[in-house]
Amino acid sequence: MANVKAAIPKGTRDFNPQVMVKRNHIFDTIKKVFKKYGYQEIQTPTMENLDTLTGKYGDEGDQLIFKILNSGDYMLKAESLKQKGEELSSKKLLPIISEKALRYDLTVPFARYVVMHQHEITSPFKRFQIQPVWRADRPQKGRYREFYQCDADVVGSDSLLNEAEFVCIYDEALSKLGLRDFTIKINHRKILTGIAELIGKPQQIVDLTVAIDKLDKIGLDGVERELLERGFTAADLDVLRPIILLSGSNEEKLQTLERVLQNSESGQKGIAEIKTLFGYLASFTLENAKVELDLTLARGLNYYTGCIFEVKTNEVAMGSIGGGGRYDNLTGMFGKEGLTGAGISFGADRIYDVLEELNLFPAAVSESTKVLICVFGEEEQNFALPILSRLRKADISAELFPFGAKMKKQMAYANDKNIPFVVIIGSEEMQSKQLSLKNMESGEQVKVSVEELVERLGVMSN
Amino acid sequence: MANVKAAIPKGTRDFNPQVMVKRNHIFDTIKKVFKKYGYQEIQTPTMENLDTLTGKYGDEGDQLIFKILNSGDYMLKAESLKQKGEELSSKKLLPIISEKALRYDLTVPFARYVVMHQHEITSPFKRFQIQPVWRADRPQKGRYREFYQCDADVVGSDSLLNEAEFVCIYDEALSKLGLRDFTIKINHRKILTGIAELIGKPQQIVDLTVAIDKLDKIGLDGVERELLERGFTAADLDVLRPIILLSGSNEEKLQTLERVLQNSESGQKGIAEIKTLFGYLASFTLENAKVELDLTLARGLNYYTGCIFEVKTNEVAMGSIGGGGRYDNLTGMFGKEGLTGAGISFGADRIYDVLEELNLFPAAVSESTKVLICVFGEEEQNFALPILSRLRKADISAELFPFGAKMKKQMAYANDKNIPFVVIIGSEEMQSKQLSLKNMESGEQVKVSVEELVERLGVMSN
Fold first, then answer.
1. How far, in whole angstroms, is CA A251 from its chain's centroid?
2. Contacts of B162 in chain A (CB under 8 A)
3. B107 marked ligand binding residue
4. In what order do the strands lie in the sheet with A445-448?
5. pLDDT for res B268
6. Test mutation, B28, B37, B43, B50, chain A, max A CBs within 10 A
7. Long-range contacts of A267-273 (CB under 8 A, 24+ apart)
8. Do domains A18-42+106-174+327-352 and A181-314 have the same CATH topology?
9. Do the Cβ atoms of A400 and B116 come within 8 Å?
């Protein structure tokens, strides 16, 4: 067997123990909040049928789906193509040699799941799902070919209470993770539709929001110049000006919008829904989240049909750390029409970077073993084994470094693993039955009996 | 967009909420025990370079690896083959159109990880890993193309304390899961080598163990007949007879082996190691596991170099629910020679089936939400929202069924989700501020204030 270089595919990552505990801290925290709000976990297979995924993410998306080669003699099925003398191009060959592909997001598999299991699902169905997805994107800093998504969706309920609870979930989960200053931006697809109706340019709603978004940077003149360049007329600008300059509290913004959009049915519907949502939110006390109506939010506009969310931290410069919204007819692609749904997503990789930068990972998270027992020889080891057993019976995470290693190596092991306590057992300790317990952080060393040891560390484990 | 049938690839599974909580119960329990013994979690990418995996699992294994098609115009690289007019066979095309593959087990990626990260690893390195693997096996009952492995391995320590701790880990994890009668079978590669030396037939050691394994079924005559058929001589049988008939306690078996294998250096080494292991185990109190020296255990013989483990439950007819052993030079395939390691694996799918059959999943595991608030109209809903918020602030998992649904539907929802308590809020409850709290199991219904509700359910959550 020839030696192979130890390497992994570009855009993929190994997660070492230190990183894993931090990632689990994030996922566990979010999971706990999802569950508290009645969301239940599901998992779907890594591989989906290729035709389940194809055509759902646009042409570019189709290119970025990782396809799996059929197993066995996959070229057998291409025989007829070969015999006809046809050119074996990548495109022609693909449906012949590949039937499966890697999950590209969690949304399409969820839609497929809902349709496939519709008769066993309790409606409204509130599910969360935390699993990796794969995209053949060009890898770059912060963009990976394998990354986790962390989604909660509800289908079968059009109540805006769901949207209000998504705001609460963001607030609670991000607060539990230690964030203290973040904004949940909210927009509504129907308000944007109303604005587009106002000026009769429904196709250009994204141009409009992109330009408005620059108000802080380039001022009203700049925004208007840009809008003119993008094909809006002077008459459009007169109508749009109150929207471009929209500011103040959420209530003030809504008042302005009600006036401006008074003739748009869509606009009024959107405003009414946002008001209902804000009304629900008044019954819930948010811990740290600011909620802000932001018309420049045009996220996933082709997809969302109601409220749209995006979450940003104000403590670190970073893109959005979460987002979502309401969509209609998600399951239509699998033949089940008319099902409404809403969902949110946490950007776990970005949240990781934020917590790292703000130093918000609890110290205990990186602690693995509570105590390491160090011995000098076989006799000490035999003396130590029942002590090791007692510690574990008391539910204390404990290790014994097998005899034969120098003390320096054993201490380095404790340090590297962030083990907070070390017990040293030499001949003196065996005779006196008083063990040396060292606090690795303070350096303090005391003598304790086995009973005292178990009691002390047991208390600290809680 | 054409409608596509909602289906998943054969041999893969969706896990619904009820199954997920049970699977998580198993994984969480095992994880907790791994950590208690100082094992730390890592994760490796789903995709490995194809050459990392190829040649590690034998020819048959290579066939069963799922390969990933290169992204982009993968046939471009085949141009030179085409121009030379070469036959585009599956075999010739493969290295051209595929560079990556799905993880086939957790062991090879672990070896790759150890070599790749050798300078950041603290030795001995104790890692656990719980991730799915993929095999293009023919799907059948209980055999899937995607399934989770659940492994703990230590590299860089030849101490038999590691093996002893593996026995403890099996004992503790399976006991925590509720199993009360299971056997950890132990064998040693060097004892088998010693037996093979004894009769000068090292190639036939597997034939031998397979035949011995049938003793209970076909008796000594049957075993001897089978051994003769398999090419052993009458002289061999005379030597082997005490081994075939090996019985009694572990101590008695070891005494017999010591006598029979007295001239085999390997055999003596293996016996000495098993004795050391049993010595260590005497210092640990096992809860439920029986430990049994079993020479018919030939699991992974080409792979293991020291102790070999296999775990069987005695409560249900089922194959092994775990196994492992010591191996040398695992990392040699990636250019790092001479590293010793040992590891064990839990068979999560089989453990799931065992717990299901023995009804050992705790009832609380299938509970999602603690309380559902049912309302009749919008006014009741508005009255209920602050109550919902208070319950959640008290860390009680709570849901409100959005107004507009019939009580029957709401009750069915609570039933389907195994929600143990329901609060009903109608006009009477709003006036009296005394809520109706219904215990869904007993049917008992009482009136409580909001304070009492929070207190009652809070106590029950702990």
1. 31
2. 402
3. yes
4. A398-401, A371-375, A421-425, A435-439, A445-448
5. 97
6. B43
7. A267/A190, A267/A191, A267/A193, A267/A194, A267/A195, A267/A197, A267/A198, A268/A194, A269/A190, A270/A188, A270/A189, A270/A190, A270/A191, A270/A192, A270/A193, A270/A194, A271/A188, A271/A191, A273/A160, A273/A188, A273/A190, A273/A306, A273/A307
8. yes
9. no
Given this model, what pLDDT does residue B26 score? 98
pLDDT greater than 90 at residue B256:
yes
Chain A touched by B13 (CB under 8 Å): yes
SS3 category, B427 = helix
pLDDT digits (tens, 9 = 90+) for B105-132: 999 999 999 999 999 998 999 999 999 9
User: So where are chain B's domains?
Assistant: 181-314, 367-461
> Average pLDDT in the A113-131 region?
96
- Six token digits for residue B215: 């003793």
Mean pLDDT across A405-413: 94
pLDDT value, residue A47: 98
Strand order of the β-sheet with B445-448 is B398-401, B371-375, B421-425, B435-439, B445-448
- CB neighbours (10 Å) of residue A422? 22
The conformation of residue A54, written as its DSSP 8-state character, comes to T
Among residues of chain A, what percentage have pLDDT more than 70?
98
**Nearest chain A residue to B136, by CA:** A71
Q: Residue B364 carries which DSSP code? A: G
Question: Can you list the positions of beta strands (E) in B135-181?
Answer: 146-155
Q: What is the pLDDT of residue B88?
A: 87
SS3 for B125? strand
In chain B, pLDDT over 70 holds for what percent of residues?
Answer: 98
* Residue with the two structure tokens 């294998």: B261
Nearest CA to B47 out of A142, A10, A137 is that of A10
Contact B375, B384 (CB under 8 A): yes
Core vs surface per residue A96-126: b (16+ CB within 10 A) or e: bbbbbbbbbbbbbbbbbbbbbebeebbbbbb
A145 versus B1: the higher-pLDDT residue is A145
pLDDT classification of A462: cutoffs 50, 70, 90 = very low
Provide CB contacts within 8 A for A4, sequence distance 6+: B49, B51, B52, B333, B334, B335
pLDDT of residue A301: 66
Contacting residues for A160 by C-beta, under 8 A, at least 6 apart: A273, A276, A277, A280, A307
Question: What CATH code would you report for A18-42+106-174+327-352?
Answer: 3.30.930.10
Query: Who has greater pLDDT, B299 or A434?
Result: A434
pLDDT at residue A366 is higher than 60: yes
Structure tokens at A173: 């989960």
DSSP-assigned beta bridge partners for residue B154: B126, B342
Residues B10 and B146: their CA atoms lie apart, in Å, by 10
Nearest by CB to residue A7, choosing from B68, B116, B124, is B116
Query: Distance (Å, rounded) from C-alpha B139 to C-alpha A369?
Result: 40
Of the options 2.20.28.90, 3.40.50.800, 2.130.10.10, 3.10.20.580, the CATH number for the domain spanning B367-461:
3.40.50.800
Query: So what CATH class is A181-314?
Result: alpha beta
- Residues in chain B closer than 8 A to A173 (CB atoms): none
Quote the pLDDT of residue B462: 47
ipTM over the 0.90 cut-off: yes
User: Does A88 contact B at CB distance below 8 Å?
Assistant: yes
Beta-strand relationship, A182-188 and A289-293 = parallel
Q: Mean pLDDT over residues A208-216, rounded?
A: 84
The reply, when asked if residue B135 is annotated as ligand binding, is: yes
Model confidence at A3, pLDDT cuts 50, 70, 90, reads confident
In chain B, residues with a C-beta closer than 8 Å to the C-beta of A124 are: 402
> Is the CB of residue A127 less than 8 Å away from at least one CB of chain B?
yes
A286 reaches B (C-beta below 8 A): no
Residue B162 near chain A (CB below 8 Å) = yes
